[in-house]
UniProtKB/TrEMBL annotation:
This is Ribbon-helix-helix protein copg. One of its GO terms (biological process) is regulation of DNA-templated transcription. Residues 9-44 form the Ribbon-helix-helix protein CopG domain. Pfam families: RHH_1.
Amino acid sequence: MSSTLGSPISVRLPKDLRDRVAALARTTRRSQGDIVREVLERDLAALEWEQRISDRAAAHRAGRATAISAEEVDQQLGLEGDPAADAIDTIS
């Protein structure tokens, strides 16, 4: 968690979500701001990753990006052959 606090931000939350934040803050003896800040620090990276994936998909659909086949990826990684069959062979 970041030790330097910046500017405040105002967020409107549905009652059920606000109640959950308040309950966790009481249980952990922390401020509601601390709870919300920790949730953002934990989950913001996942939302940013999802947005990058969405942007890449849009670029691909618009013809601004190219893709390579799964077979080519396998070749580049040296994973030639049927991975499912190989996995089954190692289990048997």
